[in-house]
Amino acid sequence: MNRYLTVPCEEKVIKELRSGDYVYITGTIYTARDAAHKRMYEALDQSEKLPFDVKDNMIYYMGPSPAREGRPIGSAGPTTASRMDKYTPSLLEIGLKGMIGKGKRSDAVKQAIIRNKAVYFAAVGGAGALLSKSIIKSEIIAYEDLGTEAIRKLEVKDFPVIVVIDTEGNDLYESAVEMYKEN
């Protein structure tokens, strides 16, 4: 099913999404990869404020290439999500509602997704140039010293993703394999 989602978004909207849904996201999302997640995790551990309010927001696991002239960002393909699994449950516990990446997630992340009524989306790996066309604006808001791993605030319009893990823990990677086995 095709769905359109405006972010930030509340739990009731996220709960309507189902594994396998195609979703087009419009609004504000944030980028963060390994190094930025480590810093945010350390900030939480020290009871420090994060660079942005994660409540009802989404993080896109992505480090862009340099922007071409006239564009807000370069190629913007997803990073393998499992690299953030160590840090993800803590962010979900404080209100993060969605993550965008590629690849499978750990059981601990799945359980945190269910517990916190969040969702994990996949963006198509290898389609970074195409994905960047849905990014209207890009601005570094924290950890500039990390280069491509700095946290960015992105304004997106109809950013295409697929629900992989929904709020009930249904996992597209698992269900798709089972469907394939049946045929």
Distance between the termini: 22 Å
Largest sheet: 5 strands, mixed, barrel
Q: Give the strand content.
A: 25-35%
Tally of DSSP helical segments: 6
Helix coverage percent of residues? 25-40%
Assigned CATH class = Alpha Beta
> Do you know the CATH topology?
fumarase
Order of helices and strands: EHEHEHEHEHEEH
How many extended strands?
7
Structural class: alpha/beta
Q: Strand order, biggest sheet?
A: 2-3-4-5-7
Name of the CATH superfamily: Fe-S hydro-lyase, tartrate dehydratase beta-type, catalytic domain
Descriptive report:
This protein has 183 residues and is an alpha/beta fold. The chain has one domain (2-182): Alpha-Beta Barrel (fumarase). The protein contains 6 helices and 7 strands. Pfam families: Fumerase_C (PF05683).
Ordered list of secondary-structure elements with their pairings:
Elements: E1 2-7, H1 11-14, E2 22-31, H2 34-45, E3 58-60, H3 88-93, E4 98-101, H4 107-115, E5 119-122, H5 128-132, E6 135-142, E7 151-165, H6 172-182
Record keyword descriptors for this entry.
26% helix, five-stranded mixed barrel, Fe-S_hydroAse_TtdB_cat_sf, 27% strand, alpha/beta, 183 residues, Fe-S_hydro-lyase_TtdB-typ_cat, lyase, hydro-lyase activity, single chain
Quick structural overview:
The protein has 6 helices and 7 strands. It is α/β, with parallel strands linked by helices. A 5-stranded mixed beta barrel has the order 2-3-4-5-7.
